[in-house]
Amino acid sequence: MSDPELEVQDVPEEWKVVSSTEHFKGRVITTVTDAVLMQEEVVNRDYVLHPGSVAVVALDDQNRVLMIRQYRHPVRRLLWELPAGLRDVEGEPLHIGAARELAEEAGYRAETWHTLIDAFISPGMTDERTRIFLARDLSPIPEQERNFVQQHEEADMPVVWIPLSDAVRRAMAGMIHNSQAVAGILAAYAASADAFASLRPADAPEA
After folding, report:
1. CA–CA gap between residue 30 and residue 39 (Å, rounded)
2. Relative to the CA of 125, which of 17, 49, 111, 157 has its CA 20 to 30 Å away?
3. Which one, of 173, 103, 112, lies nearest residue 143 by Cα?
4. HSE (CB half, 13 Å, CA atoms) of 52?
């Protein structure tokens, strides 16, 4: 039965951790098992520690969204995605990191930035949180100003512009699978209803 007293808003909560065991520590992720006290019973929970990420819905004056294609080995697919990256510069404002990813992966800069959506990527198995930004008033970065060397998965990463409405259709049809891309595309489409007037500023705090 629905409880009218409950507000539908995520809130911080931390149950007691009886013990914690680290199993693996890599360049980006760490895997751990926590023994957590849940309703008078201690239960083991395995999960991945992650530094977090940012992503960018870059929208041009024709209402097209910029997308890139990247090989993702864990799922053995070429995925259409948004420019995105790790929160790997300590103390860096998130929108600055997002601007760097847009420049490095797509070769564009933007004059207007807003916070589009905040999300946990897969909260049942990782603490990774992402912030997806809306970037507008775009311009290409001149070739002589680009100093980022793309390598590995990023070495052959095509860039396309697709109408936002078409991107929504493709996401709903199961043609786009990346979670940041799906969430960002749908959020941008919803936010366009009031011409993005209700969006938070780029430096809005994370709850």
Report:
1. 27
2. 157
3. 103
4. 19
CA distance 46 to 65: 36
Q: Which of 40, 81, 92, 154 is catalytic?
A: 154
Question: pTM for the whole thing?
Answer: 0.92
Tens digit of each residue's pLDDT (9 = 90 or more) over 149-168: 665 555 578 999 999 999 99
Task: For Cα atoms 60, 182, 166, give the angle at the middle one, nearest 5 degrees.
Answer: 50
How far apart are alpha carbons 36 and 45 in whole angstroms? 7
Angle between helices 179-191 and 164-172 (to 10 degrees): 130
| Strands of the 41-49 sheet, one edge to the other | 17-25, 30-38, 41-49
Degrees to nearest 5, angle at CA 62 with 61 and 67: 95
Q: Nearest CA to 191 among 117, 83, 95?
A: 117
**What pairs with residue 30 in β-bridges?**
25, 49
- Residue 71 pairs in a beta bridge with 78
pLDDT tens digits for range 88-129:
999 999 999 999 999 999 999 999 999 999 999 999 999 999
Q: Is 101 a catalytic residue?
A: no
The structure tokens 């914690």 sit at 20
* 68: β partners: 81, 159
Non-local CB neighbours of 86 within 8 Å, separated by 6+ positions: 28, 51, 52, 53
